[in-house]
Amino acid sequence: MIRRLCLLSLAWAPYAGATDFSPWIGNSLELQGEVGYLYQRFREVDSGDGDFEKKSNGNLLFAGLKVAYQDISGEIELFLAKTSEMSFGFSHARETFRYQPYDELNCDPVSLVFGLSLAESLSHSLKDFTFIHHGHFEAYAFGSIGKELTTSFKRWCSRVYGTVGVGVADIGSPWIDSSCFYEKRWVEGHRAGAGASFGMGFGRENLCLHHFDGYGPVRYREANLKAYYVYDIDRCHALKVLADVRVYADNCPRAASISIAYLASFGL
Fold it and tell me: What pairing do the DSSP bridges indicate for beta strands 72-83 and 221-232?
């Protein structure tokens, strides 16, 4: 029975980055762990004062653990970073809480989640423009809605979902984020998907690397295209690979990244 639960839970595992913003929260009283590595590279930075060449390599190690109970879930993540601007060390932490009022497994027409994600960043991470941090303390409220398009033998074969949220930090102005994804699943344990995301900060300043204290005060815009692949090793373990390309950048780097992660699920 536990092995069967693990299989179902990994079907809802996060697949678009470390934090899970999807409208599916997994099985009740089951731990899901994830460890991974992300590499980001860019050669150009766009600012309101004009584009300029800036080479940088960013490395991010992350580990997360989440658990669901009925229609709520909680997740905690830790991040270590090394970039061209910062030596290797602790970068930031994140805690995410989700509530699911509608679930297709309960015969609702869609799956719907509302959530709150909190983040805490150290000063040296905040002053590094490689990854987007808005302040020392951040709060991000979001909603996510999804729909299974086709099902077979009580398992989904394809689905879509979208997320929109607004965030505030102790520094600067609010920001908004949105994303949408389509995912396809095959019986052999292979999953793949693609999507796009858009982020916008309502700050009033242009990006200035000489006096940079996070993206909170910056008026930035960024649009990304993403593609991912997930392979279910067995009923309780999976590997995922995600590629992310920033196709539009205003007051932020024109970055591209790739990440790989290992996921495991344990029944309590």
Answer: unpaired
